[in-house]
Amino acid sequence: MADDAPSTTSVPDSSINYQRIRVPRVDESTLQIPPLSEFDSLWDSNLSGNATQRSVAIRKFANVETLGEWQDEARREIRQLAANYSSQYLPNGSTEEILSRSDQVIASGHQPNLFHPGVWFKNACLSHLASRTHAFAVNLIVDSDLCTNRSCLIPKIETNGQLRFGWVTFDQHSSSEPFECAHVIDEPRFQSFPQRLAEPLRQFGSTNKPIVFKLWEHLQTVRQQMPEAPLGHWLAAARHRLEWAHGWRSLELPLSQLAASRCFATFALAIFQHIDAFQTTFNDLLADYRQVHRIRSKAHPVPSLTQYQNGSHLWLEAPFWIWSEQSSERKPLFVCVTANSIQLTDRQGILIALKQHEFQNEFCKLGEQGIFIRPRALMTTMVSRMLLSDLFIHGIGGAKYDQLTDAIAARFFGIQLPDFLTLSATRTLPVDRGAVEPGKLSDLKFQQRQIKYHPERLLHHNANATQLIQDKQRLVQQIKREGTSKLIHDAMVTINQRLQSMVSPSVEELQQQEQVVRSKLRDNEVIGCREFSFCLFDESLIDWLTKTALGAT
């Protein structure tokens, strides 16, 4: 079941249109923009558009002559990087199957956390669509984002029988640091996570084995193959092995490795060399986006880029993060361009100067010096869509903001980015807490109002109520003729009270039923939440995602 298409509203004198994307609310429903049934048209259009764009001359940017030249270099590099990375933990020979495909690329990406099934739907579609087109499929692990939550949301039954949201941690929480820097702190807690996560489900009488057990089996294998890898890479690799075991075919690549590649260094150089023009473009279009979407917050969808003067040097903020081996706290990156060098700083201790004619080589070696530069969200999707892929698959969050990415790329690079797919899905936990008929609460409240103000309507066949009903009708007519008075009001109250006592069920009984219905509705809000991790479901979830991805096209 596909959810409604987005609603769009054009705003006069704006290069950006308002777009509202609705989350799919109904269980087993999906969001597809455009519908996957129209994939062939989207794919052909993107390939045709990219073929035209490849001849765009961009000599002034980073010493590359055309977009096509830049894309070829980037795709050769990403294919090999993804194959080298994924071969560390996938079965022998797995990467050759993907590498044998065409030069066309379908990509997606997400943080390496234990996300909900709606995110996983993107991976199922990535595998299916790439297999169908014989394209190279790659999923970017956004490990430069902060590892802020080492736990899973769960439904929990209180001692009074009510449901509420709870959490089960898989590791001790730590200060915010990027996933690529985060490692396991509490080993016993990490090892016991599957058993502790499954316990809440047993309260509901569930006998199915949740995916987390199979995931943790794969994770133990991954730990042996990649013992020094960060926590996020372990989680992502275990999930990837699970996907592979169910026939999904793609390769994966951490953003941290992409950001240390030559093609990414060229992308960064293109921005840094013209940071003044880029910042002006970025801030102008960001202001436009906020106006169109009526956003007052200066932090949404992203903060504006700032600048500061230090002596004779003007430092301009670029949409990248920087941190060091000594401190993994991410800081905004500031750039100052001189005649021969590009200087980079975090304004708090890191200061480096890269020679312009050697920029790519020196940029790629920054990690060896313990300095790390990573793109922020808009730049991640820009480099992915402009250089790496013919089609990018977004979730809801990324799709909301990529109108801004499109506008920046068009104005700064003079390039029209390929259209993207927006995909998500809703799958709720298979737990029954008692169905509530639609409108039951409204019906109960209506019955209570009827008993309170019009009990006679419920007593047509009660002979004992006939005289009282006639008395009330006479009072109503008297009020119409003479208006109300305290005497008439008191008489009306008395008659209503006597009539109410004859009605069954009583107001009290209906109020008790209302409390039961409200309790079930609260339970349903908890158990029907779409944000529960895929780890809580059994492996039939993977079958559903696969069939949904196959059936949607």
Write a compact overview of the structure shown.
This protein has 553 residues and is α/β, with parallel strands linked by helices. The protein has 19 helices and 16 strands.
Note the main attributes of this structure.
single chain; 553 residues; alpha/beta; 6-stranded mixed β-sheet; 6-stranded antiparallel β-sheet; 19 helices; disordered N terminus
Distance between the termini: 13 Å
Helix content: 40-55%
Strand content: 15-25%
Shape designation: elongated
Largest sheet: 6 strands, mixed
Report on the architecture of this protein.
The chain has 553 residues and is an alpha/beta fold. 45% of the residues lie in helices and 16% in strands. It has helices spanning 39-53, 67-86, 94-99, 117-133, 187-191, 193-202, 211-225, 231-245, 255-258, 262-272, 275-292, 359-364, 377-388, 396-413, 440-453, 466-482, 486-500, 507-527, 540-551, and strands at 7-9, 18-20, 29-33, 105-110, 136-141, 151-157, 163-169, 251-254, 307-310, 313-324, 331-337, 341-345, 351-355, 371-375, 391-394, 421-426. α4 (117-133) crosses α19 and α11 (275-292) crosses α14 (396-413). The longest helix has 21 residues, at 507-527.
